Amino acid sequence: MKYVVLLGDGMADLPIPALQGKTPLQAASTPNMDLLAKQGRCGLARTVPDGFPPGSDVANLSVMGYLPQKYYTGRAPLEAAAMGVHLDNGDIAFRCNFVTVEDGIMSDYSAGHITSEEGRALIEALKPLMPEQRLYAGVSYRNLLVLKAGARAVCTPPHDISDQVIDGHLPRGQDADLLIELMQAARPVLAKHPVNLKRIAEGKKPANMIWLWGQGPRPAMPTFQELYGLKGAMISAVDLLRGIGKYAGLEVIEVPGATGNIDTNYEGKVEAALLALKTLDFVYLHVEAPDEAGHEGKMDEKIKAIELFDQRVVGPVIEGLRRQSEDWRVLLMPDHATPIAIKTHSRDPVPFAMMGKGIEADESSGFSEEEAKRGGFGLVEATKLVGMMAK
Ligand SMILES: [Zn+2]
Predict the structure, then answer these.
(1) Does residue 80 fall inside a structural domain?
(2) Residue 277 is part of which domain span?
(3) How many domains is the chain partitioned into structurally?
(4) Is pTM beyond 0.70 here?
């Protein structure tokens, strides 16, 4: 049996008045996801345990079957693994976003989705300001800083404070001063850097501040194979997911042109997934674009991202699975909702659909938040899903 998780990051949403009370999943044309729901069985999954922030880290760990209560130490250490940055005992990894702050307001948590190349140049300029210079450039605005301290600061994800005054949201708590000092020290260097001057001249958002958050020490997780007896692969453009994959002992597959954005290489991801399944039992295929559109509050782009996921990932994966000779099961879901109305993640249970060999169909006629409420699986803990699928 082959197992596939198709994860559309942040696809779930709330009813939107401009869509006559439909959600983007309902408004989008998604024949393949609907077919999967119709021929399979739906339900609602709780991906964020009480007391945890509704981040992609916590939610995706849950979907993979890792209890966040046991294994979650923070987002940045997961991303460190993906970036090949080794963490020793005592190391604390931080996500270091490039952000745009205008008049004291968080106007863009991604500095206009700055390119990785531009980001690398800025990171080089900032390195000398950091203790031990352990500052690493990541994909686009997502960088990493490793310190020997900072675990006891309370930090706020920048995408949670879009369009808000940053002052009340700077790091707080015991280790906050050090972090705020580093964030402030970066500002003058960024302000006069040629990369930013050029961005401003081109009408783009400058990366005029760094934002530290998501910190933690390295986690200790059992491998996916130890949990389920399955060998698998992770396909994602996003470091967070690749890092979870590494700690889980999955093969992390590089797909050229996978960007974490709406222009990602969908065909390359599908091809890599189907190829991996020739030798492995399990693939986790993650697409980031619906979440990014949600964070930006762009309804039409979110609908488009969902439709692209449906046409260019869900459809071809099902088709590819049908062409091969082995039995298979697919789990389709978002990790969390990223409602357009709030531009950030919510902790509501998310819809899921499971389809394939031996899975009895329920009454669902399509894939949506509403249909999933009446699904045959009912409300389940997301940490049980892969176990249910692989039973
Ligand atoms: Zn997410």
Answers:
(1) no
(2) 2-71+221-389
(3) 2
(4) yes
